[in-house]
Structure to design on (306 residues):
């Protein structure tokens, strides 16, 4: 059975358990649920993790901003075209330290997702990120980015307004920005749309998040001309957090509760909070020249074959 089939079966058993009045039946159903849950999540495939990363109940960037930062004040617009709701950016306090937060934001409802283009950013979104990053550099505020996108918005209007240039400018600016940058990959990290906010001194990734050059569906369609081979594509692409950690691209894996972080967001928030505290303390005490050199070397060694 697939992950989705097993999850549906678990929900059926949980609903049945909630309705029973018999203690013996309750205990038997609990054992079945525990056994099936353990069996389902013990050996997840790459495609299983893709499914978890895309789960509709999975927490969004707004949940992390609310849970990690105090007095967050959102800033809008790129000062050139408009405001892109797919990027939430602003200033907040992290344990009394002022920080700049830039997050790719999916919605929680259909209308919210339509307004945010399902987390796919337009050029004005990336330019808003650039504006806030330069502001952070001016006041030497550390930058925390949250990545959660299937890719940059592919509309004609986005291309007309310079989508590729906006992404390229993000890569250029973040590679040399003179303030610490930490990136947190929440769920999906797709192509250049995600890479634009991923040039950082530290990159951490949620256990069930994925990061790749394109979706498994796109990979299977382009490479094999066969949409049915998406599960095979997910394995070949090496897109899971464990694959990226093994390759040295990701610095830290944030463990998730069984079934995904939607089952215990507080646990995940506490883990990220501790990680950010530790790394910010190191980065804020690193000299500027050393900070930039280490960031440069971090990305230069990616993809090197021994």
């Amino acid at each position: 059975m697939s992950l989705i089939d097993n999850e549906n079966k678990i929900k059926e058993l949980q609903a049945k358990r909630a309705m029973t009045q018999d203690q013996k039946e309750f205990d038997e159903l609990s054992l079945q649920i525990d056994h099936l849950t353990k069996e389902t999540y013990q050996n997840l495939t790459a495609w299983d993790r893709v499914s978890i990363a895309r789960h509709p109940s999975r927490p969004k960037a707004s949940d992390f901003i609310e849970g990690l930062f105090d007095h967050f004040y959102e800033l809008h617009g790129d000062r050139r075209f408009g405001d892109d709701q797919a990027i939430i950016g602003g200033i907040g306090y992290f344990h009394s330290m002022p920080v700049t937060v830039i997050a790719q934001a999916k919605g929680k409802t259909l209308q919210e997702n339509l307004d945010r283009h399902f987390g796919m950013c337009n050029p004005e979104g990336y330019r808003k990120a650039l504006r806030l990053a330069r502001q952070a550099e001016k006041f030497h505020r550390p930058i925390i980015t949250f990545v959660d996108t299937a890719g940059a918005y592919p509309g004609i209007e986005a291309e007309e307004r310079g989508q590729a240039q906006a992404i390229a400018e993000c890569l250029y600016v973040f590679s040399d920005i003179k303030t610490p940058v930490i990136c947190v990959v929440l769920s999906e990290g797709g192509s250049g749309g995600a890479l634009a906010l991923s040039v950082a001194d530290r990159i951490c990734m949620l256990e069930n998040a994925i990061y790749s050059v394109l979706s498994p569906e796109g990979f299977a369609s382009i490479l094999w001309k066969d949409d049915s081979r998406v599960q095979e594509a997910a394995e070949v692409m090496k897109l899971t957090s464990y694959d990226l950690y093994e390759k040295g691209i990701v610095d830290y894996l944030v463990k998730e509760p069984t079934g995904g972080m939607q089952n215990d967001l507080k646990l995940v928030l506490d883990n990220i909070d501790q990680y950010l505290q530790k790394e910010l303390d190191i980065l804020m005490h690193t000299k500027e020249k050393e900070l930039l050199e280490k960031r440069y070397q971090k990305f230069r060694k990616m993809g090197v074959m021994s």
User: Anything to note?
Assistant: The radius of gyration is 20 Å. The chain has a mean pLDDT of 90. The beta strands are 70-75, 87-94, 97-104, 143-149, 181-190, 202-206, 210-212, 252-254.
